[in-house]
Amino acid sequence: MKINKFLPIILLTGVLMLSACGSETPSGPSYTITEVEFLALKAKLVKPNILVEDNFTVDITISGVTFKNKVANGKDDIYFQGTHIVLDLDVSSYNASTSKASGDTYEYDEDEKTWSKETGEVNVALYNSYALGFETVFKFSPTFFDAFTYNKDTRLYTGSLTVDDDTYITRFMVKDGQFLYYEVGDVYKYEFSNYGTTTVTLPQIVA
């Protein structure tokens, strides 16, 4: 009789414990990525609309020279080939078929130490190539996700690709589905930060 009396309580306790365990989610950030997520992330980085839709800061080192680019939902601060450009794009005007948008293009004159501004149609695809340059970088990285191995201690994925008898070692790190780090050989290094919190201040034009 006592067993029958307490059996419903025991069963209910077991159900509640199982329910609690089943509702638990892993704590902390994730430093791994699936093949589908990896390929989607690579594809996003070479699409022009990343300058319109995304928000992050990236420190880029090319052959030992480091510069900082900021992408802030249509306000983009870009360094390339010794040129400093700031874009202020009208996000609603972006045309995916032409990869163009209306907006303002600011360019810094190193000699005069002043900014100039041009208003009109902006070739977003061109500036995405300048801002990130991943079209070139990915040519020296393994094409297939299976070519990478993951080290859980360093949290780095590592792979290699041989191009014209030269072998390039690629290393990258992700956090919650976004790149934190991407390196190809001794030539290209990208360090990503401030996802969702990057801001760009528009230059002041002196009359």
Account of the 3D structure:
- The relative contact order is 0.17.
- The protein has five helices and eleven strands; from the N terminus they run αααββββββααβββββ.
- The chain is α+β, with helices and mostly antiparallel strands and 207 residues long.
- An eleven-stranded antiparallel sheet has the order 6-5-4-3-2-1-11-10-9-8-7.
- The longest helix is centred in the first third of the chain and has 21 residues, at 2-22.
- Mean pLDDT is 87; it is low at 5-24.
- It starts with a helix and ends in a 14-residue tail after the last strand.
How would you summarize what this structure contains?
The protein has 207 residues and is an alpha+beta fold.
Biggest β-sheet description: 11 strands, antiparallel
Mean pLDDT: 87
How far apart lie the N and C ends?
95 Å
Q: What Rg, in angstroms, do the CA atoms define?
A: 24 Å
- Provide the helix percentage: 10-25%
Secondary-structure element order, as H and E?
A: HHHEEEEEEHHEEEEE
Key features?
alpha+beta; eleven-stranded antiparallel beta sheet
Task: Give the SSE layout.
Elements: H1 2-22, H2 35-45, H3 50-53, E1 55-62, E2 65-72, E3 75-80, E4 83-89, E5 100-109, E6 114-123, H4 124-131, H5 134-137, E7 149-151, E8 156-163, E9 166-175, E10 178-184, E11 188-193
Antiparallel strand pairs: 1-2, 1-11, 2-3, 3-4, 4-5, 5-6, 7-8, 8-9, 9-10, 10-11
